[in-house]
């Protein structure tokens, strides 16, 4: 089996109820991400947490140093697990993520987190462009309602459209249950 790592993207307090930018389904997505984290920890496979902060204090969410920018307790990192701080949508851009993965000899990344239509999408595409095999655990990701040219798009449709696009040519898409069943068979 190829050396794998779990990348948990931006499951931060501002995306949860009471935060500045609440996502639809984020609590269920985080619960599934927590299940993945447990399996990776048990297997002693690397877990990388990605945390986004905007560069200025007038940001709409993820304000530097704020409680909202902290990783949610449900998926908090252990002290030995790296937290990659990013200021861009793509988790690889201007960060140490690729260096960490390459240092561990990672060939396959398993991706979960938020937002499906932004940072999960960008990270998945970049990972594949860098030569990693990618799996996105779709029910461990969350999105939000969007609008375009007067058309309101429900979060479930946003999420489905982006997952469909990633599944077409970039990544294997699995539910948490399916991934955990596959991981158990491969172990």
UniProtKB/TrEMBL annotation:
Keywords associated with the record = Hydrolase
Q: Which organism is it from?
A: Azospirillum aestuarii
> Which residues belong to any copy of the Isochorismatase-like domain?
5-154
Q: Does the keyword Hydrolase apply?
A: yes
List the InterPro entries: Isochorismatase-like_dom (IPR000868), Isochorismatase-like_hydrls (IPR050272), Isochorismatase-like_sf (IPR036380)
The record's annotation in PANTHER family points to: ISOCHORISMATASE HYDROLASE, PEROXYUREIDOACRYLATE/UREIDOACRYLATE AMIDOHYDROLASE-RELATED
- Indicate what this protein is called per its UniProt record: Cysteine hydrolase
Coiled coil spans: none
- Gene Ontology molecular functions: hydrolase activity
């Amino acid at each position: 089996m190829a050396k794998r790592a779990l990348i948990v993207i931006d499951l931060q307090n501002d995306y949860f109820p009471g935060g500045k930018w609440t996502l639809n389904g984020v609590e269920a997505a985080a619960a599934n991400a927590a299940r993945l984290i447990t399996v990776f920890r048990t297997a002693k496979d690397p877990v990388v947490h990605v945390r986004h902060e905007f560069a200025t204090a007038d940001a709409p969410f993820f304000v530097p140093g704020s409680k909202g920018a902290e990783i949610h307790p449900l998926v908090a990192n252990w002290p030995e697990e790296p937290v990659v701080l990013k200021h861009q949508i793509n988790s690889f851009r201007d960060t140490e993520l690729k260096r960490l993965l390459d240092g561990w000899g990672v060939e396959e990344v398993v991706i979960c987190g938020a937002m499906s239509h932004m940072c999960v999408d960008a990270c998945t595409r970049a990972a594949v462009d860098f030569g990693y095999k990618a799996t996105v655990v779709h029910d461990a990701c969350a999105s939000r309602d969007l609008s375009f040219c007067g058309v309101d798009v429900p979060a479930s449709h946003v999420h489905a459209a982006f997952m469909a696009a990633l599944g077409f040519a970039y990544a294997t898409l699995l539910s948490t249950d399916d991934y955990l069943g596959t991981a158990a068979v491969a172990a």
